[in-house]
From TrEMBL, chain A:
The keyword Cell cycle does not apply. It comes from Cytobacillus eiseniae. Belongs to the bacterial solute-binding protein 5 family. This is Oligopeptide transport system substrate-binding protein. Residues 1-21 form the signal peptide.
Automatic annotation (TrEMBL), chain B:
Pfam families: BPD_transp_1, BPD_transp_1_N. Belongs to the binding-protein-dependent transport system permease family. It is a multi-pass membrane protein. It is found in: Cell membrane. This is Oligopeptide transport system permease protein. It comes from the Bacteria. Keywords: Cell membrane, Membrane, Transmembrane, Transmembrane helix, Transport. Residues 96-297 form the ABC transmembrane type-1 domain. The chain crosses the membrane at residues 5-27, 100-123, 135-155, 175-193, 228-254, 274-300. InterPro entries: BPD_transp_1_N, MetI-like, MetI-like_sf.
Length: 552, 311
């Protein structure tokens, strides 16, 4: 019996060693292991200083299959290792990338893209027009597509039928004239189409390579062929990626950073500690940390094309009454919400279309429209009294929100504002993320906090939501012929100035009818090391862009 | 012994079957789907159903269940909905390493220190030794391990810079999470061992051993510890399982690519196949550990002989 103990101990030790061998530490040659290895020089401070950039990802990497993927983390990686016809610059303007130029037909429906000379995949093969056609068809075909297929099928002629499996590839209006020329025909004039080609789902794919990899495509770093500023040299879904400068990239002289580490860190406080320890160059802040860093020169904020708003349900009492809707729309101050409650870089919303979203001629939609809904307590009180009279009773009101901290805080804020300004008690109903969506789809709510994040830089993404929606409950059972007409007219309008006029009017109608109550434009606060410059972030789609980043 | 073993294995299979069935139906009651529901909300009901149909999610629950069970029997856990294109078994295989390493280290460390503290406290009953050991034990139980982990990270990792703040890059990355995880084990084991030891020390056979002239070390090793450890082994099961299968919070704080956070995340995003795969994995691991522990009793205490009891 005595002898069993040493035996057990050695067995335990043995299994521990097996475990150690099997738990894939990502270290090895990485520069961040320097503390233990001691003698190794730190790459980021040696002669070639400034060649390494360290960033974090806030969750695991779900899917690097570009035609299928839908999440911001995968986008953040793909945007730097792949490239579409165009690439967005720091002002969110599309700049020629794989394409050299494009021509648009008179009616705004046909785009002819000419590809650059000397563009190559990371294996040396040339990037051709066919690579785009192949990829776009793949992104639409029911067997290979993901839930982002609509970003192609909504615009490209014949796409929707192909995606539904009703027609074959020949009926999709993507034509390869020759190796360098790609012709695309659209359903309606789409002034933002060139910008769309910078989106992940529009990136090209090398057919031979993709076919060869089969089911392994996109699962490892060797399972992807690159054409962007960087290539992946390590990829682990739970740990992150390492990117290195792509020697085959057409514009490689502009790429100053040699190596980028993007590591998964789910805990915001850990990311902050890593930033303080100098192991990360940029970190997003939790709102609790904002006040401690607000005055730092490394502090900054950015807004996203994501608007939070109250959706009033016209299909339910009392919001079939316009005065009640308007009263609740005017009785809170979004500025208090963003400055005091959220305190994370968000901006108060006085309209629906996100701030800085493009309008026309370099002016943003918001600059053209101005503020539509400004809080007005006195008027709100008046409207409330009037509404209650019309109803003949004081209604009881439930406010539906999701159950995450920010949503609940927003709900509590509205509850207290309504109590203070109108003297009414609003009940908060909180539900899990998907539960709230289910409830709203079923139309089983009076008013709910909803949001919309844009995938492209045009106000139509917002305004089309209430244009004869497929699920009217979700959009508050709003039926207004004039509104639908305006949005539809804008969609088929080739003249950009006329188009924007219609869209501006549509937003005004939607807001003044009291269908939605604007809350805030989502924002982020972050710290970035002062020696790091040129990280371009976009308020929508794929962000960040590290092509122009430098580390001094 | 053989008969006992066979009966236990059959029991285990039945247990796993019940767990799989219950989890399957409970999980399907979760609102939402594995897809971006915010985007899907723009579709009409029919379009949405069409989309679900691509993944077989439009079929009646009973059909989905039968299909899943059929695959399961053939050892196929299916493909993850969230990590598209990845088999659930591959996911588990990739993630279990770090969690298991931390778990084994935390159990070893926790047991060693816990038992030593417990023995010292019992032999120096009602002295400063006893009190300090028990203060450590109370602190260990009452301080949540994520608070301890955050403190460790801030002071040891950031301020002193002795160990890496986070990430999973070399063996030293595993030290702080191990310590944070073992705190609770130390506390539990120390208190258990102390109480059991106190009881054992009062038994007549201890007096006999002393009277025989057995050296003190041998008394502790051969008579006291072995008898005091029996109840401790009982709590070993749940501790081992919870530690080896990962701790979500500790893994997140130290950026460990383990299995704990995978489980919680898979529930958040309705990744049905991953939820099922991990639940089954956890359950199988748990029942097997319990089996091993039952067999261990016999090694530690010859009085508990499984075969002798029934035959």
């Amino acid at each position: 019996m005595k002898k069993t103990w040493p035996k057990m101990m050695s067995f335990l030790l043995l299994s521990l060693m097996v475990l150690l061998a099997g738990c894939n530490f990502s270290g090895g040659s990485k520069e961040t292991v320097k503390k233990e290895e001691g003698e190794k020089p730190v790459e980021s401070t040696d002669g070639k200083s400034g060649s390494v950039l360290n960033l974090s990802l806030d969750n695991d990497i779900p899917d690097l299959n570009q035609v299928k993927t839908t999440d911001a983390i995968s986008f953040a990686i793909l945007n730097n290792v792949m490239e579409g016809l165009y690439r967005l610059d720091e002002n969110n303007e599309p700049q020629p990338a794989m394409a050299e130029s494009y021509e648009r037909s008179e009616d705004g429906l046909t785009y002819t893209f000419t590809l650059k000379d000397g563009i190559k995949w990371s294996n040396g093969d040339p990037v051709t027009a066919n690579d785009f056609k192949y990829s776009w068809l793949r992104a639409m075909h029911p067997d290979t597509a993901g839930s982002y297929a609509s970003i192609l099928t909504d615009y490209i002629k014949g796409g929707a039928a192909y995606a539904a499996g009703e027609s074959d590839a020949d009926s999709v209006a993507i034509e390869v004239k020759n190796e360098k020329t790609l012709v695309v025909e659209l359903i309606q004039p789409t002034p933002f189409f060139v910008g769309l080609t910078a989106f992940v789902t529009y990136f090209p794919l090398n057919e031979a390579f993709t076919t060869e990899k089969g089911n392994d495509f996109g699962l490892t770093y060797e399972g992807i062929l690159y054409n962007g500023p960087y290539v992946l040299t390590a990829y682990d879904q739970a740990q992150g990626v390492t990117m290195e400068k792509n020697p085959e990239y057409w514009d490689k002289d502009k790429v100053a950073v040699q190596k980028v580490n993007m590591k998964v860190i789910k805990e915001q406080s850990t990311a902050l500690n890593l930033y303080e320890a100098g192991e990360l160059d940029k970190v997003y802040l939790a709102s609790a940390d904002v006040n401690s860093y607000k005055d730092s020169s490394e502090f900054n904020t950015e807004t996203e094309f994501r608007t939070y708003f109250i959706q009033f349900n016209l299909g339910k009492e009392p919001f079939d009454n316009e005065n009640i809707r308007k009263a609740l729309q005017l009785a809170y101050d979004p500025q208090v919400l963003t400055d005091v409650i959220l305190n994370n870089g968000s901006e108060p919303a006085y309209g629906l279309v996100a701030t800085k979203m493009a309008g026309v001629d370099g002016k943003s939609f918001r600059e053209l429209q101005g503020d539509v809904i400004k809080p007005d307590i006195e008027k709100a009180k008046e409207l409330w009294v009037k509404g209650v009279e019309e109803l003949g009773k004081t209604p009881s009101i439930d406010l539906l929100t999701a159950d995450d901290t920010v949503s609940k805080d927003t709900g509590t804020f509205l509850q207290s504002e309504y109590k203070k300004n109108l003297g009414i008690d609003v009940n908060l109903v909180t539900q899990p993320y998907s539960g709230r969506l289910d409830t709203m789809r079923a139309g089983d709510y009076q008013m709910g906090v909803n949001r919309w994040g844009a995938d492209f830089n045009d106000s139509i993404t917002y305004l089309d939501l209430w244009n004869a929606p497929s699920n009217p409950h979700f959009r508050g059972n709003y039926f207004n012929e004039k509104y639908d007409e305006l949005v539809n007219a804008a969609k088929s309008e080739a003249d950009e100035n006329v188009r924007i006029e219609k869209l501006l009017e549509a937003e005004k109608i939607l807001l003044e009818d009291g269908i939605v109550g604007p809350l805030y434009y989502d924002g982020l606060s972050y710290l970035q090391k002062s020696n790091v410059k040129g990280i371009v972030t976009h308020p929508y789609g794929a962000s960040p862009d590290l092509k122009w980043a430098t580390v001094e | 012994m053989k008969k006992y073993f066979i009966i236990r294995v059959i029991n285990i299979l039945i247990t796993l079957f019940i767990i799989a069935t219950a989890t399957f139906f409970l999980m399907k009651q979760l609102p939402g789907s594995p897809f971006d529901e915010e985007k899907l909300s723009n579709l009409s009901e029919e379009q949405r159903m069409e989309f679900y149909a691509r993944y077989g999610l439009d079929k009646p629950l009973s059909q989905q269940y039968v299909l899943y069970m059929k695959n399961l029997v053939q050892g196929d856990l299916g493909e993850s909905f969230y990590f598209k294109g990845q088999d659930v078994s591959t996911l588990i295989k990739n993630r279990i390493g770090p969690s298991a390493l931390l778990g084994v280290q935390a159990v070893l460390l926790g047991f060693t220190i816990g038992i030593i503290l417990g023995i010292v406290a019992a032999f120096r009953h009602n002295t400063m030794w006893d009190f300090s050991a028990m203060i450590v034990a109370v602190l260990g139980v009452s301080i949540p391990n994520f608070v301890f982990a955050a403190l460790l990270q801030y002071y040891v990792g950031l301020k002193l810079g002795i160990l890496p703040v986070a990430f999973w890059e070399s063996y030293s990355s595993s030290i702080m999470p191990t310590i944070a995880l073992s705190l609770m084990v130390i506390a539990l084991i120390a208190r258990f061992t102390r109480n059991e030891m106190l009881e054992v020390l009062q038994q007549d056979y201890m007096l006999t051993a002393k009277a025989k002239g057995v050296p003190p070390f041998k008394i502790i090793y051969k008579h006291a510890i072995r008898n005091a450890l029996i109840p401790v082994i009982t709590i070993l099961g749940p501790i081992v399982v919870s530690l080896l299968t990962g701790s979500l919070v500790i893994e997140n704080i130290f950026g460990v690519p383990g299995i704990g956070s995978l489980f919680v995340d898979s529930i958040k995003v309705n990744d049905y196949t991953t939820i099922m795969g991990l639940t089954l994995f956890y359950s199988a691991f748990f029942v097997l550990t319990m089996l091993i522990i039952d067999l261990l009793y016999g090694v530690i205490d010859p009085r508990i002989r499984i075969s002798g009891a029934k035959e």
